[in-house]
Structure formats: C-alpha cells, structure tokens
UniProtKB/TrEMBL annotation:
Pfam families: CMD. Transmembrane segments: none annotated. The keyword Oxidoreductase applies. The keyword Oxidoreductase applies. GO terms for molecular function: peroxiredoxin activity. This is Alkylhydroperoxidase/carboxymuconolactone decarboxylase family protein. Residues 23-105 form the Carboxymuconolactone decarboxylase-like domain. Keywords: Oxidoreductase, Peroxidase. It comes from Thalassobacter stenotrophicus. The lineage of its organism: Bacteria, Pseudomonadati, Pseudomonadota, Alphaproteobacteria, Rhodobacterales. InterPro entries: AhpD-like (IPR029032), AhpD_core (IPR004675), CMD-like (IPR003779).
Amino acid sequence: MKDYAAIKDGFDTGYADLSETIPDTAAAFGKLIEEATRAGTLTVKTKELIAFAIAIAVRCDGCIAHHAQAVLHAGATRQEVAEMIGVAVLMGGGPSAVYGVEALRAFDAFNHQPGRG
C-alpha cells in the first residue's frame, strides 16, 4: 500500500523548491488553484470531488494525495468519495478502478491521522 502522507509531503517539498526556481510560474499556478477552487455556484467540496475524480482518471499519485486531504478538509464523507470514485470508474474504466481503490485508501489514511489530515 502506498504512503499517501509521504507522497504529499514529498510533493510539497519538491514543489517548494520548484517554486523558488520558477517563482512567477508558481505564483500564476497558485492563483489558478485559488480561483478554480473558490466557492461559487459549485461548493468547494463539489470542486474538490471533481478534482479528486480527475486525479484518479489521470492516475496521478501526488494529485490523489493532495485532493484526498483537500476533499476531507472540504467536508466530504467517505460515502461521497466512494460515489465519486464510481463516476471516475465509469469514465476511466479498469485503470480508474485500480486508482479508485488507492484514492479511497488515501482518503481513509488522511481521515485517520491525528488532527484529521
């Protein structure tokens, strides 16, 4: 089983280094994230569930780690995550089923950390 907390920590450390190297690009990407995930007609939770589904479909471990924690912070339940995984499997087939299992494990891992992720 993958250690999604370690995957997220590794990404965060690496991205901090990359951000120092290309600060303008990193700042622009940060602004995009801020704008795209801001509550509007869609709630933050809905937007994070969408992002989490896309992370599964594109098979991105770092993205799964990030969005597992983000969707938890946005208030998603395990059942909501499981249903979202069902939609990801519908769109992505067998590979999304494999990564969907991993995504649920990641959600569970962050949900059971002290301080809830």
